[in-house]
Request: fold
Amino acid sequence: MSASRTSSGGESGALLARWGRFVHRARWTVLGLSVLCLLASMWVIHVGGRLHPPDIPTVTESARARRLLEKQLKGQPPSFNLIFSSETKQALDPAFRDEVRTAYDPPGPLPMTMPLVSRDGRRTLATVELHGTGAGFASLEFSGLPPDLYPSLRALVRAETLDVVAVGNVVLNHDFTEVARKDLGRVEALILPAVAVLLLLVFGSAVAAALPLAVGALAMTGAMAVTFLLARWLSVSIYAPNIVSMIGLGVAIDYSLFVVSRYREEIRERPPVEALARTVATAGRAILFSGLTVAIGLLGMLFLGLGNLASMGWAGTSVVTLAVVYGLTTLPALLAVLGPRVNSLRVPFLRAEGRADGFWHHLAATVMAYPWHFFVPVVCLLLLFGLPFLHLRVGSGDVTALPPEAEARRGDALLRSEFAGGDVTRIVVVLDAGAASPLEPARVAQAYAFSRWLAGHPHVQRVDSFVDLHPSLNLATYQQMAALAPAQRPPELVEALRHVLGEHVAMLVASTNLQANSDEARALVREIRTAHPPYDGEVLVTGQTAFDLDFLELVLRHAPRAIGVVVAVTYVVLLLLLDSVLLPLKAIVMNLLSITASYGALVWIFQDGHLARWLDFTPAPIQTATPLIMFCLVFGLSMDYEVLLLSRVREEYERSGDNVGAVVVGLERTGRLITGAAAVMATVFFGFGMARSVVIQAVGIGIGVAVVVDATIVRALLVPATMRLMGRWNWWRPAWLALSTSRRAGRAVPNRS
Reply:
């Protein structure tokens, strides 16, 4: 059996070898096309596209309620809030009030009301209402303000002696978007120099170290362009560019590192053309299948049903796809141009990469000599790392996920500490009368009973609705008021009703002192939904607590399907790569252990608050979608090194037929390379722990932990131990599968049973 043929993966390896020879011949054409793609991508990025905060899946009850309120309560103009403060003036002083009224630039009265004065009397809360701009804009918090309008309006508000802070959901969404945007450039500026130094240490050559950076830049630029193109037709999350940068810097550089390393190894033994063909047939095949496993995990986000968070899956898949494409086209073309000069500009004190490493040989031999001594303690250790995940709490992201200096967070802190009612949780009940009117006498009576039922709960402080205008009014009075024709209603009544009453809906707002993400608040929402008094119509509940419950239910409903699809398709891809039935199962189990450890770290750090001072964040429940998004990201990424290692082990096994020897040689030959690649990827992901957005911090550190665990504990200890314990069963496959794959590869069937 030909070693070159089998070790390159049979038919697929032969095709890739031919592709490598073709790229060598057409290297200048390939490089020219790559430059054109780069220029086109830069133009698309320059044109840009609008990104959106995470949106609410429209299938949930809370989302339906909010959309119904947007549609029905058309009398409410778009608005946002401003808090004006002074250290010396009282809010009721004429000078204070005059400065508030003239704070709009160009000069003129700001269209706002000032109903609230703070407890200390030195602040006032102004509600800015934008008349004439229309209503019913599609917004996450049904605020009605187009997202592009707020920054320009905020810039026009100035005060000479007063401190002005904006507050509210529009401000919150704007700040989340700005923090995510600024994080991207700031973190990349910190990460790239460190990655360049690591590549130089791995290769010992400036030319070789520059190649992965070049391919990484191409893949990231192309994926950013794809992301902004998608944003022209789809709702794309504000975090999509961060995912592109995070995965692009890690995966594209890693894949290029694998290819360059193998080429440097091959060119010492073969002519440049055959060295490139051999490199593409081996390392190229490994990154192709590795890219497939990563892309499968990312595409799992499409099955989550979590609104525009699916766009992160598309964005991540695009950067992985381009990393593989450029790794099989542009990078081989650059290697064809360079040839042996790939080792130019060597760093004198660094030894050549790619030679056999005695440390990894000794480690593999030791582990395989005593497999149970390593297997049991390591599995127990990984399960121990995952224990904090057992007390996971989830909730929607709130203002504490922003850095302390963010305006929305400062405004929220002032609102809660200085203004009465600023620290309450509001549960919104929507009474939908369908095609009828909520002002019919029977429905008024039902709404009245519903309101009193709500007010009777021990944690409900007050209820606001069209049947709670004043404590002295009784049911009969409310029914009489409801019977008045719109033209006969006093202006005060019209103003009061427009905030809580639509043509077919009525809104009841229950204020409670419970924290929005507390178990008690969630229990209250569940009780309202399941045990409320009768109403001739549909009863819907919304608000932050209701949204948390609905989102969690959505995640739990879609998680089994998403995880099942990712695991099943990954198994098939690994089966094709490794030509084994059991090795893919082993790889998946090892991967799940890595993910368990990363989940434990996620809860230990971001929920329990360890490292909060170092990373500068406020401990809080983990955002509901984060664990499932992390699974989709981590499952493929942490499979990278096992795919590379097992591909090399398979080559050696096909050559020698010795399972133990193949594992030792495979770990020895890839030891330094995988260590360097893992150091690069961990640097990238842990670098995003320096972001100011807690969401990006959590995802970056969580993935970084999984990569480190997979590249050290799993790769160096668990893989050799399990492969020694499984013995020749590593390579077992049914006779029909062996026959079919051997026929496709055009080789004899070895006996593996």
Observations:
- The two ends are 19 Å apart (CA to CA).
- Strands lie at 79-85, 112-117, 123-129, 163-167, 394-395, 425-432, 460-464, 505-512, 538-542, 622-623.
- The chain has a mean pLDDT of 83.
- Residues 39 and 221 are 9 Å apart (CA to CA).
